């Protein structure tokens, strides 16, 4: 009886300790999710085709691939707080530039600056890992994911309100995102307390700088190596889904930024339910291995289902209104000749396309909600305590590499073979992972 009672508290997550981290991530992600539905459409305003939009979407993760692992190593030496503040400052600068952008190259520069300093989420994950143990770490990381999901609910809603109040001005949305980024900086400054306090010699001595060989060495580790491959290939498939989704809905269903923001909000509600209420329970009952296999399988179903969405515009679709929405309050005249993404005809409007997409979005959201925290939890359990920040940085590096490759690959396929093809191929990649993972991931 005494042993049982003593064991129970250690299994519980210390919510008071990680609550400031979750709140900071929530505000930070609200700023990010405000602009996610708009970025491809923002670029389309300046005449970018799907391939160029793919290159723009790749700019942020490409730079993040370089910067995040280095910042992860630095957080192991100097602490989480200064690195988190540096990352948030870069995000703020990027959003401000986006708000005043009047040319495509400024969009590129804003994403490059944000990407080079973009270690917000991985540093927050490292802070949660500092504040948890192996028995409750998945739940803690899941709550970070839940904050991510709540941000994806509130962000698109805020984007919708700002668009309505500003007459469809995308720049007002970007400056609103900058306001939330500034808020996250203030919260980190005054609410966040340093979590990395290991004074052991192995932790305090300077570790070697991050190199690509460090990533290759991590791949040779029996458990961590395969988990890093899972992180890369799942995000390679899912990254195109996330980054080209608004172009897909524009092309297949004639949906503008406001409509797409609504879909992002709906997916966010589902992710919050999964990550905030279910993932901790599933992890304890079934284990992280089961969660990874579940996530891969449902993502495969969701992406293939999305690719098969019928090209039937939503009932309220009006081509002139969509073009007006893309133009916003800018002085430029937007026509179908300016837009390099084909718009559907108004001849065959109906409910089938949007209903089909909604049904396909649920398994995709389930997989996206489960995989990231489950894979990172397994990685932290397989790494030494003093290298958790570095390993999460390497994990984020693989994640960013996939995000950098996915929009280039998917943007090319989108432009040359059609909108459904990249989503279908993403689903096939996940099907392969679904077959391989049960054998490659050892039972816990």
Structural description of this entry:
- By secondary structure, the chain is mainly alpha-helical.
- It has a single domain, classed as MFS general substrate transporter like domains (Growth Hormone, Chain: A, Up-down Bundle).
- The protein has 18 helices and no strands.
- Helix 2 packs parallel to helix 8, helix 8 packs antiparallel against helix 9 and helix 17 packs antiparallel against helix 18.
- It is globular.
- The two termini are 27 Å apart.
Total strands: 0
What are the segments in which pLDDT stays under 50 over at least 5 consecutive residues?
A: 1-9, 199-210
Shape: globular
| Multimeric organization | single chain
CATH architecture: Up-down Bundle
- Helices, by number, come to 18
Provide the CATH topology: Growth Hormone, Chain: A
Structure class:
mainly alpha
State mean pLDDT (0 to 100 scale). Answer: 81
Distance between the termini: 27 Å
When the domains are counted, the total is: 1
Strand content: under 5%
Q: At the fourth CATH level, what is the homologous superfamily?
A: MFS general substrate transporter like domains
Largest sheet: none
Task: Work out the helicity level.
Answer: over 70%
Classified by CATH, the class is Mainly Alpha
